[in-house]
Structures are given as C-alpha cells and as structure tokens.
Amino acid sequence: MNKEKTIFWNVDTLYDFMRKDGKLYVPGAETTEGNLEIITKTAKKEDIQVINSGDWHDKNSPEISDKPDFVNTFLMHAEKNTPGAEYIPATNPENAYTIFKEDKTIDENLVRETRNIVIRKDAFDSFDLNQGNPHTEKILDIIKPKKVIVYGVATNYCDDFVIMGLAKRKGIEIYAVIDAMKEIPSDGEPQKTFDKWKEAGVKLVTTDEVVKQYQR
C-alpha cells in the first residue's frame, strides 16, 4: 500500500450508531473503537487528510419515519444539533472544515489545506446529489486522492455507499478496514458485502496492515 496521496474516510462513527444507548445502535459497534482510535491517531501523527461523513437528519428527512421498515426508513437518529449526531471521541475530527448539503459553495483552499473535512449528509449515500451532499464529488476532485482507506459504520449501509461510490471513480485504489467496521445484522452479512467489494476491486485490510505502512 503506497502512502502517496492517500486519504482516510471515516464513515458515520456517530454516537447514535456507536453507543448502546444511541438511537440507531449498530450491534457490536463499540468493539471497533480501539481500532478506530488507532487509525485516528495514525492520521493525526502522519498528517493524513480525513474525510468524515456523517448523517445530519431532521423530521423531514426521507430516511426518517414514525413507521419505519428498517431497510429504507428508520426512526429518528443523528438529529441535527444533538449529541447523537456527534462523532465519538475515538474518531472526533479536530479543527474540521464542515460542509453541509445546503451550502451553496465550498472553500477550495480549505478543502485542500484542512486535515479533517466533515461532510454532513441526509441520506445513506454521501454521493447522492439531492439528499446526500452535492459537494462530495467536488471535494474529491479538489483533493485528487490516489488511495482511500475506509472505515466506520455500517458495513452494509453507509460504508457500502461510500465504497461503491468511490469505485465508480477511475484511478482510485480503495481499502476497506474490515476490523474497524460493523454491519447491521442481516442474512449473509458482512460477507455478502465484502464479496461485492472484492468484485469491484476493493482490497480488504486490517488496522494492523494500515498502521504498518506508517511505521518507521
């Protein structure tokens, strides 16, 4: 794994997903926190840029329902301006430049120069132009990463959308840190998602394999 033009991508490691008392807890998510912290500290030590995507919902969000099907719709979670929508300490993006889907423009210099970029989204898919964040593609166009290392939750939801969205772009090597992810329980998961990623050319790695690239 060449370190040149590598960025990390932290997916939805928010309180509501990562904690047992969160509003949409991903079972077992807390077991990944040690690895998430290692990755976060590595990024800081090595001055690696991190994209942090995270849900930012309100009662009008298409994903939110009082009668959810728990496939496409869910009860309220990651509500705007609440503790549930904040990142856990293990992944907290320090001094971040936060970009909301409602922002008319983005500051290209800040995208280039800020180590932590936060992309707030209103859908599973960060690349969704309407409900995700319409600036996601432009952010990548500005940064021009050659390699993206992805981790967070949930494997078969937001992780999957990030990875498959990246896979549509040419010239990017994608690495999924599988011991820093956790799936929402479903038949065949997470192996079904891992198999799809491998077919798309994604490399499955561990936290140790990532960190070893930066050991001197």
Helix content: 25-40%
The string of secondary-structure elements, in order, is EHHEEHEHEHEHEH
* Number of domain units: 1
Termini, distance in Å? 15 Å
Q: Average pLDDT across residues?
A: 96
Describe this structure in words.
There is one protein chain. By secondary structure, the chain is an alpha/beta fold. It has a single domain, classed as Isochorismatase-like (Rossmann fold, 3-Layer(aba) Sandwich), CATH 3.40.50.850. The protein is about 25% helix and about 20% strand. The chain has seven helices and seven strands, in the order E-H-H-E-E-H-E-H-E-H-E-H-E-H. The chain has helices at about 15-20, 35-45, 110-115, 135-145, 155-165, 190-200, 205-210, and strands spanning about 5-10, 50-55, 95-100, 115-120, 145-155, 175-180, 205. A seven-stranded parallel β-sheet has the order 3-4-2-1-5-6-7, with helices on both faces. Strand 6, helix 6 and strand 7 (about 205) form a beta-alpha-beta unit. It is globular and about 50 Å long. The protein starts with 5 loop residues before the first strand and ends with a helix. The mean pLDDT is about 95.
